[in-house]
Amino acid sequence: MTDLRLTSWNINSVRLRMPRVADFIAREKPDILCLQEIKCREAEYPLKAFEEAGLPYVEIAGQKGMHGVAIGSRYPLERLETPDFCIREEARAISVRVAGVEVHNLYVPAGGDEPDPTINDKFAHKLEFLARMEKTYSARSNDSQPLIVVGDINVAPREHDVWSHKQLLKVVSHTPIETQAVDRILKEGGFADIARVKHEDKEKLYSWWSYRAKDWEKSNRGRRLDHIWANRAATPLTDPASYEIHKDDRGGEKPSDHAPVTINLKSAV
């Protein structure tokens, strides 16, 4: 078995923030880096910069100017068929196998502002995406293939995954219909929510802080939107104690509004 370090990060434009990405790779040394919201087409992706940073194997699902997901790795990647979660022509999911572990990198739709699918088609789209995740992963609940699901799920499912549970119950990302959908995915899919394996439910955990907050760190009005889940076959390979939210990477010059999240695990081969 090989020791692996896996990071998930909504980078909010990989080309704009490639210097930040390169710095993170040099400092934290992830073996597998899953990015969301890369905001570029495959041909525009900074492949050379990733190779120079030590992640020469890259798989991309890109889109012009928006969405998009990618995975960079120190080890060879086998591209897999991506589950059909998105009902629109949007690049929001990519699947690979690396070192015997299947990795799904997802960028779930944010859902707009109004948490009512009858008047907000963006929210309806989000709920459909989550429903398709539940259907796919529940069918694989007893799968012997180690599976790690990561990404910007755009849902903060627990009470202390948001700065104010009471005030955000009617705010998209923490409404009961969304949090219950994620709960079902975790339960029916047999997933461990790695962050909450390490940290008790009563502990506040955030991975996203709005750009609208000028002093985001002081106000600390965050949400835990970025996730790492392990299925039953993958959970024994993970080291929950190593789970980390790299909050410092939310600061500095031209940051993403998301912090990277990282876990150490063993290969399956």
Automatic annotation (TrEMBL):
Residues flagged as site, Transition state stabilizer: N154
Bound cofactor: record note: Probably binds two magnesium or manganese ions per subunit.
A Pfam family recorded for this sequence: Exo_endo_phos
Protein's recorded name: Exodeoxyribonuclease III Xth
Chain positions of site Interaction with DNA substrate: H258
InterPro entries: AP_endonuc_1, AP_endonuclease_F1_BS, Endo/exonu/phosph_ase_sf, Endo/exonuclease/phosphatase, ExoIII-like
Residue numbers spanned by region Disordered: 240-269
BP GO annotations: DNA repair
Cofactors: Mg(2+); Mn(2+)
Compositional bias segments (type: Basic and acidic residues): 244-257
